[in-house]
Amino acid sequence: MTIGADRYGSRADTLVFLGCVALSIAAMSLPDSWRAPFSRAIRQTVLAPLLALQEETETLRSSRARLAAVTAERDSAMLAAAFLPELRSENARLRSLLGLGARLTTGYVPAEVLHEAGPTDPLTFLVSAGRRQGVRPLDTVVSPDGLVGVVSSADEQTSVVATWAHPDFRASAMAVDGSVYGIVAPHGSEGPGIWLLELEGVPYRNLVPDSTLIVTSGLGGVIPRGIPLGTVIGERAEVEHWERTYLLLPAVHPAAVTHVMILTGPPRNGATLKDLFQAEGKAP
Amino acid sequence: MRRSDRYRFWIVLAGLVLLHFSLRTRLGGDRIAPDFLLLALLMYTTRATPGRGAAAGFFVGLLRDALTPASFGTAALAHTIVGYLSSWAKAVFFAENLFVNGCIFFAGTWLRNLVVVLASGELKGAPLVWELLAWSPLQSLTTAAVGVLVLWTLGRWVAVRMSDA
User: Fold this and answer.
1) Which residue has the higher pLDDT, A1 or A112?
2) Which residues on chain B are in Cβ contact (under 8 Å) with A58?
3) B90 closest CB neighbour out of A7, A12, A24
4) Whole domain around residue B99: which residue ranges?
5) Using the beta-carbon criterion (under 8 Å), do B73 and A25 form an inter-chain contact?
6) Is the pLDDT of residue B65 over 70?
7) Domain at B159, CATH number
């Protein structure tokens, strides 16, 4: 091989060129039965190492792509696993809501809580049911565990619910056995007991043991009788006049509810709400 | 050219062949990715006599035909013509600067595609026009760009006088 030698075409060069062209045309004229074995022979000899290199490159390329896909799938699985406890919890809440709904039979409107990311969200929140679904102001809002609040205003498609944590919330209440009556109000907006309720106005002579279930008494005609409010966890230290005030652990935390039932009328199967909520506690 | 440069020249050609079978699939679609194999052929033919260029083109074309047996012989014909003409053109222009080499790479790639398309008869009408006026120029451009890059970075190895660039 003489690289850089005289490159002006000679007769020999022309003959070689014409010969190669003739061979090319002859190759184009080969029948398919001849082409295939000839091509195969070239691929299996001269081109074999190059094709192996290409195959390795493609394998490496696809391996990297598969690694990226597997990594993405693993990340997705981890993300899904992170939400699994919350999904299970929501599933349990929905199951209990369905159970309560089946016992109520009618007289309620199911709604989804439209939480907003704000510090006042537990005091009032929107629900996805309004006047079109039969919701009216002062309707009672419950979850399977107990009272959530009351409807403060109803729009066409949504309603605003004032929860029991709202400073203006009041409900007449009683011990579940009817031995003690009083008024339940939020404990306050500051301090460690912000998410507690108070049972006020209990006569001084009446003692309420801890863990006593407090339910609505129905006095006043706004909130029906028998809806759980919370359980007694202790007596407030300050005694005013001749009455006692007890601290209640609420049955429902407003920030934890995702679905609620708005009571639009009494249950039509004859049962009282007290019986229905007590059945909820016994349900498997 | 020094004696050691001759071996370096073959190393560059071998590197281009290896790149064709390893890197090319990662550089975009087949129709616009640079053709390293043709580039290696053109680098050789522009430094060889027309007869050797035609023979090398025939050999390279035959290898490509083995990879695409459906149009067997067309690549051999196309590469033979390109090999011969590029060797002849380089001798006529007698210029070894980057621009002329880039033009030869561009024209060689486009001419190779033209001959393959016409000889195989597989494309007609609008696809033929698209191939010759869109895809082939793009592939010629990328091939010429890679060729110029190789000459610019390895100019001494492939005996290009960079002072002419």
Assistant:
1) A112
2) 25
3) A7
4) 3-164
5) yes
6) yes
7) 1.10.1760
Quote the minimal CA–CA distance from A73 to chain B in Å: 24
Among all residues of chain B, which has the CA nearest to that of A38? Answer: B66
User: How is residue A244 annotated by DSSP?
Assistant: E
DSSP assigned state of B134: I
Task: Find the residue in A nearest to B61 (Cα).
Answer: A24
Task: Please write the tens of the pLDDT for every residue from A48-58.
Answer: 888 888 878 87
Task: Report the alpha-carbon distance of residue A254 to residue A212 in Å, rounded.
Answer: 21
> Which tokens sit at B6?
């001759």
CB contact under 8 A, B52 and A23: no
Reported ipTM: the value is 0.85
Chain A environment of B91 (Cβ under 8 Å): 7-9
What average pLDDT is seen over chain B?
84
B22 vs A20, A36, A54: nearest CB: A54
Is there a contact between B63 and A46 if contact means CB atoms under 8 Å apart?
A: yes
Say if pTM beats, i.e. exceeds, 0.90: no
Question: Among A182, A155, A185, A146, which Cα is nearest to A169's?
Answer: A185
> Coil, strand or helix: which one is B16?
helix
Least Cα distance to A107 among A276, A281, A266, A283 occurs for A266
The architecture in CATH of the region A90-282 reads Beta Barrel (2.40)
